[in-house]
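tokens incoming
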């Protein structure tokens, strides 16, 4: 193995243009053996903020006699030489150093990029958390030498993890990253080279069999017309001393309020009546509706739906509370969780991104992270992978199953049942208890009961959130960034959906027909470019309108909101809002009409037997 240099700096702040370095450390190593170390405090010729002193322990007095950065550049440059430079969020370090040291020919490796891919379930990726995750005993102290040593140890562990990946997966990551400047690609290239040199038997990445799709071991439940009622006292006895719960839970506490709430819930289920309950903290209300729901659903072979406000609470129910209930009562209770489409990975869209390739380092990182994640995870549930920040969230949206036009039949044909969303939907059909959040309930309401399977009763937990959840779910929200992202996906003649249309149809169409298609794509590209400009103008006008009418108001930490009433339309500046809105809306309609024509042409090719158009059709739709 060649030598590497792990480097770390401390600075007076985060801005490369205004802040300065106060400490540099570098560790030259080969494998686990340290070959040399170098470090120095640096005089920034300015005051060190108190916050930085509190974080690092470095103050003005310590730096007064320290050399300036220009005085040590030759030492740093000589120490690093031609070795690959490793850092955690390394572009921050290199960005400050490159003011004096070019590092033009050095390979750059970021342990953050590696950790994000190789540890897709890690809760955090900062250096201290990464060290703990990897079992590194060295401390990350916000002193440059300590952090450089932790970076070295983290790199070695992550490199071994990369080498341990299946050969075909490593090869695919290398292939996908070749056209992109990505600060993790070097490690995967070296891992592939190591596989090749050692003649390692190629382990294959696990493929999802999709066995749960359309699972017939538990047929879909049917709601009986006359369900058998519960014995409320028998249900309540479960929570009494000597009952199943007191025997199952070691620290069981009998609570009269919990028993009473369970009775009234059991009575409401038996009589099919409405019930509203307010329960304070400490009552243990979850089991007040879990127990009667389970006792009612299982013998009656019916389904109840439990609605919560948050996805985190959904996961708590499925992973902890319901398994405890099943074990305590020795009950053959089937439970499932169903989330919105955007929470599930779409295999077709994942294959599309692999086929056309990522365009940015962010896309490459998320793509590689998802591919590694799939080795151990078959749920495809976004909540089980750490997507760090809004950028990774945007990439996930392009990989998610957020495509209402996708049907079960299409999914079976394309993925053989491997779609996580349709598997979750299939599991929901045979579940006695189905756990969903408020947003999905309201989506079911707004679509005329087309989202959720049939159910005989529902329980709404965290009901105090229902009004705001209703407002959010039954309204439309659009930001400037949302529209920019959609227009970026539409693309143009050489990129995005429109670029793929031309690429996929070039060989299938006669030259004259392809020329007509090019004209349509050019027209759509012009419309998209025009809409991008109008989008900026509209939101700038809205911002100016808001700023004018907020003038003189006391600043707050809350977002400014204004309901558009008839009186609003008479205010100064509103004419500009309407004019820019109308212009953007008109251009948007023209773009949608142009895309509809292109979609129609692709659909005709598909019906004539060109299967390559199926993905294009789905993307335009």
């Amino acid at each position: 193995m060649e030598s590497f240099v792990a480097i770390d700096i401390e600075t007076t702040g985060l801005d490369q243009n205004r802040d300065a370095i106060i400490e540099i450390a570098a560790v030259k190593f080969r494998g686990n053996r340290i070959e040399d170390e170098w470090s120095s405090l640096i005089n920034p010729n300015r005051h060190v903020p108190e916050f930085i002193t509190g974080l690092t322990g470095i103050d003005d007095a310590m730096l007064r006699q320290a050399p300036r950065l220009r005085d040590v550049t030759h030492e740093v440059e000589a120490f690093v030489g031609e070795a690959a430079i490793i850092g955690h969020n390394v572009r921050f370090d290199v960005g400050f150093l490159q003011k004096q040291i070019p590092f033009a020919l050095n390979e750059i490796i970021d342990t953050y990029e590696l950790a994000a891919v190789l540890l897709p379930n890690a809760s955090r990726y900062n250096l201290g958390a990464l060290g703990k995750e990897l079992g590194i005993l060295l401390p990350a102290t916000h002193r440059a030498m300590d952090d450089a040593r932790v970076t070295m140890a983290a790199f070695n562990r992550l490199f071994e993890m990369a080498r341990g990946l299946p050969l075909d997966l490593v090869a695919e990551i290398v292939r996908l990253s070749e056209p992109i400047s990505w600060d993790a690609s070097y490690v995967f290239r070296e891992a592939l080279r190591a596989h090749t040199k050692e003649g390692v038997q190629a382990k294959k990445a696990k493929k999802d069999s999709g066995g749960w799709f359309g699972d017939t071991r538990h047929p879909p439940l049917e709601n009986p017309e006359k369900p058998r009622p519960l014995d409320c006292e028998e249900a309540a006895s479960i929570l009494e001393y000597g009952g199943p719960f007191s025997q199952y839970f070691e620290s069981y506490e009998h609570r009269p309020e919990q028993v009473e709430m369970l009775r009234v819930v059991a009575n409401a289920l038996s009589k099919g009546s409405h019930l509203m309950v307010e329960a304070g903290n400490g009552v243990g209300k979850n089991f007040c509706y879990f127990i009667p729901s389970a006792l009612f659903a299982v013998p009656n072979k019916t389904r109840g739906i439990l609605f919560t406000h948050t996805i985190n609470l959904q996961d708590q129910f499925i992973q902890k509370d319901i398994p405890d209930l099943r074990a305590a009562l020795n009950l053959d209770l089937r439970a499932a969780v169903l989330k919105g489409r955007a929470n599930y990975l779409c295999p077709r869209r994942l294959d599309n991104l692999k086929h056309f390739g990522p365009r940015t380092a962010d896309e490459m990182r998320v793509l590689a992270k998802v591919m590694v994640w799939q080795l151990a995870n078959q749920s495809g549930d976004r909540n089980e992978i750490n997507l760090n920040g809004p950028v990774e969230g945007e990439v996930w949206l392009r990989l998610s199953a957020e495509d209402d036009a996708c049907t079960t039949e299409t999914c079976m044909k394309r993925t053989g049942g491997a779609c996580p969303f349709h598997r979750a939907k299939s599991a929901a059909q045979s579940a006695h208890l189905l756990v969903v959040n408020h947003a999905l309930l309201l989506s079911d309401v707004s679509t005329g009961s087309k989202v959720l399977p049939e159910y005989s009763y529902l329980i709404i937990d965290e009901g105090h959130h229902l009004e705001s959840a209703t407002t959010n779910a039954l309204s439309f929200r659009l930001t400037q960034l949302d529209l920019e992202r959609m227009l970026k996906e539409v693309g143009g003649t050489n990129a995005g959906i429109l670029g793929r249309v031309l690429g996929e149809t070039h060989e299938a169409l006669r030259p004259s027909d392809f020329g007509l298609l090019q004209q349509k794509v050019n027209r759509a590209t012009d419309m998209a470019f025009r809409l991008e400009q109008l989008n900026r103008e509209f939101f700038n006008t809205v911002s100016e309108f808001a700023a004018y009418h907020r003038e003189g108001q006391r600043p707050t930490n809350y977002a400014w909101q204004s309901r558009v009433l008839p009186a609003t339309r008479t205010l100064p500046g509103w004419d500009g809002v309407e004019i820019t809105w109308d212009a953007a809306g008109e251009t948007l309609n023209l773009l949608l009409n142009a895309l509809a024509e292109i979609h129609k042409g692709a659909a005709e090719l598909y019906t004539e037997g060109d299967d390559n158009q199926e993905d294009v059709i789905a993307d335009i739709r």
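note: The longest strand covers residues 21-30.
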